[in-house]
Specification:
This protein is of the alpha+beta class. It has four helices and 16 strands. The relative contact order is 0.18. The model has no long low-confidence stretch (mean pLDDT about 90).
Length: about 240
């Protein structure tokens, strides 16, 4: 049974000074998507061929600035692992790759962090194709949170033989190679800058709450989604089919 399926991704950007538009342009270029305005400062980034709707990304203008270290981020795989084109498009370099951590850490034009990898010939060693490699979530208890989302999405949990992170494969609807959960010492203290949307399948909102989610907000009069948080407080939106 699959409770929910991955629907799409949302990235917040601080309203004003053209930042949401800059973020939309940046991520459209980085992910090979087409940007269309959705009213106000919000944008919808969608696949140019109309297929793979789960690759859609919404850029949402929000009033607050980034509150601290990102709890959720994307890992990208780019040719030769070279971040130069992303830097030229408006990203900032936070940390360069080194032998112990062979990935670059960057921030988008609004300060949302993401990581950049080079393609690998071995899937057990890293990404093998260009594009989004994985969705990464920091967690107090990475194993427990991964197991919770695995049960919701029909996925399987995998553990690294040496490193402490875990990841999911076979997530219903997920268009990326995997969904990773990484243990960190610090607790969640502020709203996530990146969140995901899901579509209800074999579960109701009440079922999700009974399983450990928290209902944060019901649908607005003109809306059709519920805002919830998972057992570690990560926000997500749930839509009816």
């Amino acid at each position: 049974m699959v409770d929910v399926a991955f629907k799409d991704l949302c990235i917040d950007a601080t309203a004003g000074n053209g930042r949401p538009a800059a973020v939309a342009r940046f991520w459209a270029g980085a992910l090979g998507l087409e940007a269309t305005g959705a009213g106000g400062e919000d944008s919808k980034l969608r696949p140019p061929d109309g297929a793979a709707a789960q690759r859609t990304v919404w850029v949402n203008a929000v009033p607050e600035d980034i509150g601290g270290k990102a709890r959720v981020h994307l890992d990208l795989c780019v040719p030769d692992g070279d971040p130069a084109p992303l830097l030229a498009a408006g990203a900032s370099l936070i940390r360069s790759a080194d032998p112990g951590r062979p990935w670059h850490v960057l921030e988008d034009p609004d300060g949302a962090a993401f990581c950049v990898f080079a393609p690998s010939a071995d899937s057990s060693a890293g990404p093998t194709s260009i594009g989004v490699y994985e969705l990464v979530v920091d967690a107090d208890d990475a194993g427990a949170l991964a197991a919770w989302w695995a049960e919701r999405t029909g996925a399987t949990v995998h553990r690294h033989p040496v490193r402490p992170f875990v990841w999911l494969e076979g997530v219903a609807g997920l268009p990326y190679e995997r969904w990773e959960f990484n243990p960190v010492p610090e607790p969640k203290t502020h709203k996530n800058r990146v969140h995901w949307d899901v579509t209800l399948r074999d579960a109701t909102i009440d079922d999700l709450v009974a399983a450990g989610a928290t209902l944060l907000r019901g649908p607005a009069p003109d809306g059709r989604w519920w805002v919830l948080a998972d057992p570690e407080g990560n926000e997500f939106c749930a839509f009816e089919p």
